[in-house]
């Protein structure tokens, strides 16, 4: 008779009951999935975590536990926290690049406006020019250019 | 007096496990006696035995970092029992994709401004705010690469 035990019960060498908490999420054709999760979290803890969740959320929880365990086995020191740190750094780098480009665009815009005003009225009162600059330099909406 | 001294010097792990804290206790360097909540988190998520095995696989000079990352992972898992740290990674990846798109637009805008500064102003001499007027495919736009190892792994999660 073919074995119908799930990967968890096979690993734990026990009978797989009909209401086994693991059977839906740790099929027998993927023994590594349960092995990883058991190594990091332990079968008992995984069973408790799944039991505490509504049935329709257990599949996602089992997946995320597997991915976390996989990350921790690949990198025993930092696990998936290492990935989080790298992503935070990358986000910060891109935000700095965007801010730098926005500053460059604002700088070009300021010079373009000054050049045009000088062309229109080269003998204009400098105080008047400064006032016009203040009125037209409403860059509050510049962030909407990119979003 | 001697018993009181040995009790007060028990690390948080040995207190939780209700055992005597030996001088070479594996957990003592990372869980002061007042850090009971810190140990409780890892104990609940990983279990003391698994936690100990994970630490044993790490070189001693890296164990403090390992403990800190495990504590963080346990905290996030307790806050989000369904997705844990994977949920955080998925959110960050999504933000990264959005920011890379914004960067692409910003670079296109800058390239256009540099090449045609006069077009930067409208007929009133003010900045033209509309970004849709910019020809994006000006040949100077960097290719937008959506390939991401981490993103692909978690792309089936519902909020991506």
TrEMBL record, chain A:
This is LOB domain-containing protein 24. Residues 4-105 form the LOB domain. The lineage of its organism: Eukaryota, Viridiplantae, Streptophyta, Embryophyta, Tracheophyta. Signal peptide: none annotated. Belongs to the LOB domain-containing protein family. PROSITE patterns: LOB. It holds the Pfam family LOB. It comes from Forsythia ovata.
From TrEMBL, chain B:
PROSITE patterns: LOB (PS50891). Residues 9-110 form the LOB domain. This is LOB domain-containing protein 21. InterPro entries: LOB. It comes from Forsythia ovata. Belongs to the LOB domain-containing protein family. Transmembrane segments: none annotated.
């Amino acid at each position: 008779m073919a074995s119908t035990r799930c990967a968890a019960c096979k690993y734990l060498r026990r009978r797989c009951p009909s209401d086994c908490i693991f059977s839906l999420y740790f099929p027998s054709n993927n023994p590594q999935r349960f092995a990883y999760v058991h190594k990091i979290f332990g079968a008992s803890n995984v069973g408790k975590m799944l039991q505490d969740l509504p049935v329709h959320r257990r599949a996602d929880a089992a997946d995320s536990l597997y991915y976390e365990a996989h990350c921790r086995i690949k990198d025993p020191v930092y696990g998936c926290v290492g990935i989080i740190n790298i992503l935070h750094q990358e986000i910060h780098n891109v935000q700095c690049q965007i801010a730098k480009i926005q500053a460059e665009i604002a700088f070009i815009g300021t010079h373009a406006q000054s050049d045009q005003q000088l062309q229109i009225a080269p003998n204009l009162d400098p105080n008047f020019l400064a006032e016009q600059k203040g009125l037209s330099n409403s860059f509050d909406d510049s962030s909407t250019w990119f979003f | 007096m001697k018993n009181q001294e040995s009790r007060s010097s028990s690390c948080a792990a040995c207190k939780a496990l209700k055992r005597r804290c030996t001088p070479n206790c594996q957990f003592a360097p990372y869980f002061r006696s007042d850090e009971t909540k810190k140990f409780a988190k890892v104990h609940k998520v990983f279990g003391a035995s698994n936690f100990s095995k994970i630490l044993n696989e790490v070189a001693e000079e890296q164990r403090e970092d390992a403990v800190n990352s495990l504590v963080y992972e346990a905290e996030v898992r307790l806050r989000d029992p369904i997705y844990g740290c994977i949920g955080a990674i998925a959110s960050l990846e999504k933000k990264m994709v959005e920011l890379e798109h914004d960067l692409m637009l910003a670079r296109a805008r800058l390239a256009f401004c540099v090449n045609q500064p006069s077009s930067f102003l409208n007929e009133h001499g003010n900045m033209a705010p509309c970004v849709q007027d910019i020809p994006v495919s000006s040949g100077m736009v960097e290719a937008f690469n959506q390939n991401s190892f981490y993103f692909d792994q978690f792309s089936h999660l519902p909020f991506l």
